[in-house]
Amino acid sequence: MSSQNQRVEFIQRALQTHQFSCEPITSDASFRRYYRVTKGTEASWVLMESPVDKVDNTPFVALNSVLTQQGLNLPSIIAQDEQCGLVLLQDLGSTHLADRLDTHARLHDYQALLDLLPNIAQTPTSKWMKPYDADFIAMELEIFHEWLVTKWLKSSLTEHQQIQWQNVKSRLVEVMLEQPQVTMHRDFHSRNVIFHQSKWYLIDYQDAVQGPVTYDSVSLLRDCYTRLPTDEFAMLQRYSFDKLHAAGLLADMDFSRYQYYFDLTGLQRHLKAAGIFTRLLQRDGKGGYLDNILPTLDYILEAAQKYDEFQWLASWIRHDIMPKAKVKLSAK
Fold it and tell me: Where is the Aminoglycoside phosphotransferase domain (predicted)?
């Protein structure tokens, strides 16, 4: 049976009607595709379709319940078909934080989202949360080397550079693991939160894990898709510290140490993200993320050059990676 026929039959069963329309909305950085299902002017839903040979929707469904029980807002699951990779969801509309960044409510929006951090962090661990251990963190970092440096820029590391790169990876793994470990959304940014009926809803939460306490605040405030003005970032970073500290999630960490962990967690996340952006182009044929590569490299450079232990990384990014990336992007 074709995927279109599977979609139609699934919707018919779920809604008990043949009177509906189903139109593509968008895809995302994964293999998932989304459709808006409407029934006249009465109601609408969102259909999530995942290729079963590439995506397991079980964590998405199971963690929906786990996070909802924590008092967080997530789209309601109306129906699912595990064998066909189909999930029918509550329609939350299309107003993401990314769509509200030019409004007068921007700072209030960020604060409201940072208010959610303790609740997310205190979510009980679940068997559906994959291990976020040293091997996995190192694997994420290697995405940068494999997909951006080697495959996209066609560069190879000298013996000295290989040693330095291994040192960078080892230190970042240490920093990620020595922080207090809490539940994190892991992709908590402007495109993954939706404003619906005066409430913020989390989406794309299926990769939630137990990991470093600074991770979600980094994801939001050092967003690969938008950059906060310096003064607003400084204020919101302090706000995120105060919220986590008040919830007892930072142990004896002071704000200076929090900033250090924040910066280095950002290094790990942004190295991974820059690699993923090029992987999406080369492996998946998705070129829509190329414009986010240089801003993400800027974040890496900015954080690395602040610390003596990452001066090699800062120099490598500034003098080797960024010039080659600019040439590559200028020819796209």
Answer: 22-237
Half-sphere exposure of 123 (CA within 13 A, CB side): 28
Report the CATH number that the domain containing residue 70 is assigned in CATH.
3.30.200.20
Of residues 39 and 5, which shows the higher confidence score? 39
- Please say whether the dihedral angle defined by the alpha carbons of residues 79, 81, 82 and 84, taken in this order, is positive or negative: negative
pLDDT digits (tens, 9 = 90+) for 130-143: 999 999 999 999 99
- Residue 249: other Cβ atoms inside 10 A: 16
What range does the domain containing 51 cover? 3-90
Which contiguous run of DSSP H or E holds residue 38?
A: strand 33-39
Is residue 173 domain-shared with residue 322, that is, in the same domain?
A: yes
Look up the pTM and report it. 0.93
Give the separation between CA 225 and CA 68, rounded to whole angstroms: 27
**SS3 assignment, position 67:** helix
Strands, DSSP E only, in 255-296?
none
Q: How far apart are CA 156 and CA 160, in angstroms?
A: 11
Number of other residues whose CB lies within 10 A of the CB of residue 201: 19
Q: Which two tokens stand for residue 275?
A: 């690699």
- pLDDT tens digits for 144-202? 999 999 999 999 999 999 999 999 999 999 999 999 999 999 999 999 999 999 999 99
CA angle 245, 251, 257 (to 5 degrees): 80
